[in-house]
Prior knowledge:
mainly alpha, 9 helices, about 55% helix, about 5% strand, globular
Amino acid sequence: MKSLCLTLFLFCQTTFNNFDFEYSNKKEFVQGITDCTLLANTFIPPTERVIILISVGQAVLESDWGQSRFAKEGNNFYGLIETDPTSKHLKALGNPSIMIRAYDKKCESVADYINVLNSHPNFKEYQDLLVKQYISGEIDPIAVVKTLHKYAIDPNYVEKLIKTMGTLLNEYPTIFHLTTKA
Length: 182
């Protein structure tokens, strides 16, 4: 049994590491981030799975629908900052002391974003709420978004994210029909 579990784990890790997507418009971008999030969620416990709509909403907001320099040059869709100068990164044009993480594949950005949400102390409220919602079986994306107020320095970030999520639901209802829950 252990060898079967290990084989499945290695197969899934290889599948995830080889998965990538291309996009040339907003719908393809939304679908790609959705697919990466779904795939990443399969490798983590249910209590740590990100809500797809939130993941896509943050990617849209942080990367301007995948059009930002960090998205195009570094596959970073979430504005994740790098603190280790020996790790792969891009420097902010306006302030070269700010390093933004860079990834070889787009889905690596999604997986790292999920890891940051689930491990960084700034998101303890988010982590606790995910567990509570999982246990109760009642998922409330807006309540979850309200715990992400520390994600950006913009004091209106939560409101912007909620608005972006509304836009996504209106413009791409078929993509989010079955993927709004964790």
